[in-house]
Every structure is written in structure tokens, then in C-alpha cells.
Amino acid sequence: MDSYVDRTEVTVLCVLADMKGGGPAEAMRLLESKLPSLKGRKFYGVFRLLPEGEQYYACVEKWPSDDESTFGLEVGIIPGGLYLRRKVFDWEKVIADGKLGSIFQELGSRYQADRSRPEIEYYRSMAELHLLMPVLGREVAPQP
């Protein structure tokens, strides 16, 4: 079931994925390898389709104690605002089967997406992933 959520912006440490190489999975592995511990961390994938191609950042929420220069990571901002959220369970299988993009495409065909902001993957737990599509406003009913 889809639901609307208002999110505040999040400051993150991130790694840009090589979309012609290892892609998002390799970027996430590299990000995780730079951190002293994964415990308690919030991880995100940030995707945007640009005229020059796909852009994906593997991200982790920046803690006040984090020194990005020590980790060798970029600092970024995940924009806040209104998002449509779809919870995905058994997300590792969905990703392995290459179905994540089709879920975002389906959402984009049913709701009025805000293309000025990126699509977000929020890795809530090992069992639950939240796909967050930025939207311009709340729809009374999904578009056909």
C-alpha cells in the first residue's frame, strides 16, 4: 500500500556509483567499507535520471561526530518535502531480480512525480525497504 510522508532534509555522506561499472551495489559496498561500524546507521540510495544518463549515490546519514575527510566521502543533502512511500519487503530479492526500477516507473505513471528531486531508497532494515518518490501534491486517488 502506498502512503504519503513529509520528510525533512537529511545530510549524508555518499559515494557516486559508476553506472558503467559496478553500479549501485558496488557503490554501497564501497560506502560501507569506509565506515568504522554499520551499527545504528541509516542507509539510502539516491537516484536521478539526468540528460547525460542515470545518476545514483549510495548514502549514509551523517552523524555529528563524522569527519567526511577521514572517510574520504562526499557530503550531500537528500531534499525534504512530500514523498509517496511504498514499502518493499524481501528487498534483496527484488533488487537481485532487477525489479526496483519498474516499481518506481509504476509509481511515476500513477502519481504526479516531482522531477526536480531525486527518487530515494531508504533501507529501513534488512527486511524492509522504503521507496520514496517525490510528488508535487497529494492526490485524492491514483492517476489511471
> What is the H/E string?
EEHEEHEEHHEE
Q: How many β-strand runs?
A: 8
The CATH topology: Multidrug-efflux Transporter 1 Regulator Bmrr, Chain A
Strand order of the largest sheet: 1-6-8-7-3-4-2-5
Q: What is the total number of structural domains?
A: 1
Based on the structure given, which CATH architecture is correct? Answer: Alpha-Beta Barrel
Mean pLDDT: 89
The CATH class designation is: Alpha Beta
| CATH homologous superfamily title | Regulatory factor, effector binding domain
Low-confidence stretches: none
What does this structure look like?
Helix content is 23%, strand content 39%. The chain has 144 residues and is an alpha+beta fold. It is globular and about 45 Å long. The relative contact order is 0.22.
In short:
23% of the residues lie in helices and 39% in strands. The protein is built from four helices and eight strands. It has helices spanning 23-34, 68-71, 91-96, 100-110; strands at residues 2-7, 10-16, 43-50, 53-61, 74-78, 81-89, 119-123, 128-134.
Furnish the topology, listing elements before pairings.
Layout (H helix, E strand, L loop, with lengths): L1 E6 L2 E7 L6 H12 L8 E8 L2 E9 L6 H4 L2 E5 L2 E9 L1 H6 L3 H11 L8 E5 L4 E7 L10
Antiparallel strand pairs: 1-6, 2-4, 2-5, 3-4, 3-7, 6-8, 7-8
List keywords for this structure.
Multidrug-efflux Transporter 1 Regulator Bmrr, Chain A, globular, 144 residues, 23% helix, single chain, alpha+beta
